[in-house]
Amino acid sequence: DRNDFHKGMDFGSGSKGTPVYPIADGKVVATFYRSCGQHFLYIIHKINGVKYTSVSMHMGSITVGVGKYVTSNTVIGYIGPTDTCSSGPHVHVGLTKDWALTDYSLDRFNSKTINPRTILRHAPVQGRYFSSRG
Fold first, then answer.
1. Alpha helices, DSSP H, located in the chain
2. Among 2, 52, 60, residue whose Cα is nearest residue 22
3. pLDDT tens digits, residue range 49-97?
4. What burial class does residue 42 get, using C-beta atoms within 10 Å of its C-beta: 0-12 exposed, 13-18 middle, 19+ buried?
5. Cα 104 to Cα 30: distance, rounded to the nearest angstrom
């Protein structure tokens, strides 16, 4: 799940337009677009009393704005078509401990990432797709 190039987890759906949900309840703190990664969305969370920041990327569109409080049942965006840095439709999720950075530099964020599997209760087995959100 984590190496020098790729930090975080990819959740594949097989098709663009699949809804994307946050990993946990939280507040949207930043959104932006890059040709490599498409739409990015940062959310701050408090999970089991610990502060985290997540990033979701490779979305074709975002449905929530900065300042919006989201729950794990909120659609935050939709998986986009394959972009210049992607091998197929999916959402990439990165996670850091503590509150969000102030500049949202992906390099700074990636330098602090932790393995999302240590936090996510329902993460699929590596190499498998989610079949449901249950």
1. 106-111
2. 52
3. 999 999 998 889 999 999 999 998 999 999 887 766 777 788 888 888 8
4. buried
5. 8
User: What amino acid is encoded at 52 in this protein?
Assistant: Y
Q: What pairs with residue 12 in β-bridges?
A: 90
CB 78 within 8 A of CB 44: no
Please give the single-letter amino acid code of residue 31: T
Quick one: which H or E segment has residue 51?
A: strand 50-62
90 vs 121: CA distance, rounded Å: 19
Question: What are the residues whose beta carbons fall under 8 Å from the beta carbon of 83, sequence distance 6 or more?
Answer: 35, 36, 37, 38, 58
Q: Are 45 and 25 in contact (CB under 8 A)?
A: yes
> For the chain, what percentages of helix, strand and coil (3-state, to nearest 5) are there?
5, 40, 50
Least Cα distance to 133 among 17, 42, 40, 19 occurs for 19
pTM of this prediction? 0.81
- Cα–Cα nearest to 5, from 102, 106, 82: 106
Nearest to 89 by CA among 38, 23, 22, 43: 38
